[in-house]
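As a warm-up, study this chain.
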Amino acid sequence: MKTLPNTLAFVLAVGLAGCQSGDKKAAETEAPFTVPASSAPATHPAATTPTAAPAPAANSSTVSLPAALPLTALDVVPAVRQLLPAEGYVQTVSAKPLNIEPMAVALPPLWGSLKPGAARSMSGYRIGYEAVVKWVPKGYGPGQKVPATMPLYVPNGKDSLARFSLGGINPNLPGQEKYTVMEVAPNKPVTVRGVVYAFTGKDGQQKPALVVYPYRHRGGMPDASKMVFLPINQ
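Now compare it with the structure written out below.
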């Protein structure tokens, strides 16, 4: 495996140092939160549909779970932003944690060592959140009419790596509904609930922080410049 940048190597070393034998076993469960649903097809000039992926919750007895954190320890706004479309047409107004659950979190495919028997998970947290988001129309030229409403596809917890999307074809399959559909109007805030995963570690200043699961880059090599850190308020 390629040599990692110093900052990233340090972050992973801190987390993987906790992958030692312990008595606790992380539960492999799905996110418990849902929001009211409605459905209506529509399109958006920059709409994208997130790819389904398995939950990062790892079932491992070799990872020591981290200490519990109070709800006041984290600002989860940067984490929630990673679940929204990168183009910026769905924005976070506010967000707060509802619960912070210590657990083993599976590493992305190309993170950590690829040697047989190497740790494939590390200590982290499943963070339940409540957020207020809004659709900010973008990409409409002069004379183009902005729709009165658009469907916002909100991950419902059945696929904990799913991200939000707006407009386009409904990504739900019969019997495999992984998104709740909410009708949103331009610049009108709506409240959503969900979960986001993060690893324990330290930031570039070697201060305690969580490293948000790389929802936007989960298939690539670890890149410290793309990592999102959540400082831990002492």
